């Protein structure tokens, strides 16, 4: 048998400690969601898992947290899905179209369009949050899905990403396709889109997670409880924990878990696409 | 099959660079023409203008009986083979070959038949359902050929189609392409920077340099009577020796010795192919061999002659040693060029 | 642009239209609006506005609360960036080295990427809870009476810890993929040239990772400035009062809660300038790097 080197033990120890630091805090939420609230209130998070998860899950999904009775977990989950999907799909479709126009057409104002679009990479939404809010308000889009999604799309990350990718596609491909009689739409549909499949998947994961996890913008734009997303609802949920006799720790914590579950699962299961999307988008 | 006529065809890129200076020539029906020249001389630009992938700045291009300057590439009745093959990576070999036909709205069973025929011709039957990434370089090359063939074009265009293959495969594909073209009889324009390809494949060679056509001629013409010092040094390996000579009293002289009779006066450049300098103990000329390159079938002697370096090619059974050596010169194989312009005199 | 690009006119315009109109309405308009508002004083009841020149800016510079936030932001950004980069590098180097379980470790160390910042904030609330927070109790063992939301330093400490935790995965992923893209031949050459593992790391691996590290530096600064909003907002439970806050959080608090539109716009403009400076710096560094290689 080979002697295990001390170095290997150190390496694994570091990695195990690192992994525990990443996992334990979330496991703690799960533990609290499985324990009766009264116990949590007395002792905080413990080591033993209880049997309350199904009950808390039901409460979280179907019992409203606010006053209007509209923001049940189910409703918030639905809104989160719309935000995540709408954002990801919108951004990819719009970005691919724009990138296609910039890379594959002889456009007089291509450079101008390029700069107009790519300047948006410089300023995140957060620095222009108030005026954006005012404009959405002026347009009557508060508490709407459009108001929630479209302003978030107003940055060119996906466009930039696809532009980079399209540029790396060999020149000869469009030339061969043109000789083969493919026009601009056919070339896009028959060749460029299938060729970009992995890129689209990678982008989709990054964008879905990004959209799903939005907090500041939904906090400002949605005041109507029926429009809350899970992530946006968190603040209200934690606030209801304050000043009650028996805070609903179980329900609150299972909502946190539900809020992170879809993006976490996507990231874990489509890990290689996710890593590709993250490292190649270079923002 | 089509005749192709270029009438003062010129290309200036948007940045103002003149990649092709006005060029005129005609390619006959069924002819195999090779455009050869160093990289960057404008060969691809010329070919791409013929294909319609590049706008024509000036002049007319006629394929068959119509002027096609403004005709879309797909409607020029051409097929093109690219250096990197430009296969569609997500499509199978079958779909790659058939894509152009599908876009022409040709019936599916006709497409299938044509693809199968092309695959038979190119030995691709076993690979029809593979993706390009599962093929070897030579097979991809064949698929690219197949894609060109199925369209029954009246003109084949090749842009350095063999550059990405290893030496052995390149020789083999060279022969295959040539044989295929003979069989199909399709007019072809073939671009390469490799003079061996040009010599072996062409019916006629067009030598280009710096956007200009230096010479148009059969391989033999280009080799034996180069139109300029550029052609002389570009075609042939090792290249033609170019020596400074002086013409006086109807004789061309190097190092004070008369080489050949030649009318005129003043300095000229004299061209001699390495194989036209013959080792001969009784030869009139004395060279100093400094290095011997062994190539198996023959040897290349690097030598100096009257202070100028030359190369001499000798057969393998000729004994050669470094040091002084006597040689004779085939005086009917000499070329003379203007010392200033480099044009043939 | 591709050399054989299509020359149809209307199609590219049509393709660009959605992107351009969204950008014009939701990017350029608000950005211009922010710049404009920063020179005006808004009536709190919405009845008009008065031009006040640079007054919003000068009063920012005079506001001790603002300067305190600026100071906190700088320290916070430095701490978060330095800590999460170095920890991630350590983990990435180890994860790149081990053979057994490499995939599992990778998954464990990166999945937190998908956790929303406010959820990370909630985790912080639990960990540092006044009555039974595990970390609070742990620090109590050393006589540190941790008071989240009450003590300025303790709150800032908690914000840094959570922000580092949340950012670790991104840095880890980039470092790991940077390490994995170092050619095997280079590693083998280093193995022959240098006996010491740490020597090899600092002489060969680290310089090759430098571009990744520099890129991450920018990413982390941007993260600390902007993306920590959700963490901060949950940790202070929406009650900024005396708690530390970043500049971005202050834009929101002053403008959205405090209704000081002019002041908040001036703050936005300051942030824009900051981000632009950062980007220019980034471009210049990237350019220089290209010159070297
Ligand atoms: N789109 C372009 N814009 C400007 N110059 C170009 C462009 N394409 C090619 N060139 C230049 O034109 C010359 C000829 O190019 P090309 O025809 O590709 O040469 P070859 O195929 O003979 O190697 C080169 O010097 C090249 O740099
Ligand atoms: Mg070329």
TrEMBL record, chain A:
Record's PROSITE patterns?
ABC_TM1
Q: What is its main location?
A: membrane
Annotated ranges, domain ABC transmembrane type-1? 77-270
One Pfam family for this entry, by name? Answer: BPD_transp_1
Record's subcellular location: Cell inner membrane; Cell membrane
Extract one GO BP annotation from the record.
transmembrane transport
InterPro entries reported for this sequence: MetI-like, MetI-like_sf
Which keywords has UniProt assigned to this entry?
A: Cell inner membrane, Cell membrane, Membrane, Transmembrane, Transmembrane helix, Transport
**Which Gene Ontology terms of cellular component type are present?**
plasma membrane
- What does the record say about its membrane topology? Multi-pass membrane protein
Show the stretches that span the lipid bilayer. Answer: 12-33, 81-102, 109-125, 145-166, 187-210, 254-275
Q: Which PANTHER family match?
A: ABC TRANSPORTER PERMEASE PROTEIN MG189-RELATED-RELATED, SN-GLYCEROL-3-PHOSPHATE TRANSPORT SYSTEM PERMEASE PROTEIN UGPE
Q: How does it assemble?
A: The complex is composed of two ATP-binding proteins (UgpC), two transmembrane proteins (UgpA and UgpE) and a solute-binding protein (UgpB).
Q: Which family does it belong to?
A: Belongs to the binding-protein-dependent transport system permease family.
Q: What is this protein for, i.e. what is its function?
A: Part of the ABC transporter complex UgpBAEC involved in sn-glycerol-3-phosphate (G3P) import. Probably responsible for the translocation of the substrate across the membrane.
Its protein name is sn-glycerol-3-phosphate transport system permease protein UgpE
Q: Which organism is it from?
A: Marivivens niveibacter
From TrEMBL, chain B:
Gene Ontology terms, cellular component aspect?
ATP-binding cassette (ABC) transporter complex, substrate-binding subunit-containing
Q: Which residues cross the membrane?
A: none
Question: Matching InterPro entries, A to Z?
Answer: AAA+_ATPase, ABC_transporter-like_ATP-bd, ABC_transporter-like_CS, ABC_transpr_MalK-like, ABC_transpr_MalK/UgpC-like, Mo/tungstate-bd_C_term_dom, NA-bd_OB-fold, OB_MalK-like
Keyword Flavoprotein in annotation:
no
Q: A Gene Ontology MF term for this entry? A: ATP hydrolysis activity
> Domain ABC transporter, which positions?
4-235
What are the entry keywords? ATP-binding, Cell inner membrane, Cell membrane, Membrane, Nucleotide-binding, Sugar transport, Translocase, Transport
Q: Specify the superkingdom.
A: Bacteria
Checking CDD domains in the record gives: ABC_MalK_N
NCBIfam families assigned to the protein according to its UniProt record, in alphabetical order: PRK11650.1
Alphabetical list of PANTHER family matching this protein: MALTODEXTRIN IMPORT ATP-BINDING PROTEIN MSMX, SN-GLYCEROL-3-PHOSPHATE IMPORT ATP-BINDING PROTEIN UGPC
Family that this chain belongs to: Belongs to the ABC transporter superfamily.
UniProt name for this protein: sn-glycerol-3-phosphate ABC transporter ATP-binding protein UgpC
What is the species listed in this Swiss-Prot or TrEMBL entry? Marivivens niveibacter
Automatic annotation (TrEMBL), chain C:
Record membrane topology: Multi-pass membrane protein
Q: What is its main location?
A: membrane
Q: Which spans of this chain does the record mark as coiled coil?
A: none
ABC transmembrane type-1 domain location: 74-282
Q: Does the keyword Nucleotide-binding apply?
A: no
Q: Name one Pfam family in it.
A: BPD_transp_1
What is a biological process (GO) this protein takes part in? transmembrane transport
Domain of life, per UniProt, equals Bacteria
**Transmembrane region positions?**
12-31, 70-93, 105-128, 156-179, 200-226, 265-283
Q: Where in the cell is it found?
A: Cell inner membrane; Cell membrane
Q: Name the SUPFAM superfamilies for this protein.
A: MetI-like
Which Gene Ontology cellular component annotation is one that this UniProt entry carries? plasma membrane
Q: Per its database record, what is this protein's job?
A: Part of the ABC transporter complex UgpBAEC involved in sn-glycerol-3-phosphate (G3P) import. Probably responsible for the translocation of the substrate across the membrane.
The record, for PANTHER family, names: BLL4140 PROTEIN, SN-GLYCEROL-3-PHOSPHATE TRANSPORT SYSTEM PERMEASE PROTEIN UGPA
| Family of this protein | Belongs to the binding-protein-dependent transport system permease family.
| Protein name as annotated | sn-glycerol-3-phosphate transport system permease protein UgpA
Lineage runs: Bacteria, Pseudomonadati, Pseudomonadota, Alphaproteobacteria, Rhodobacterales
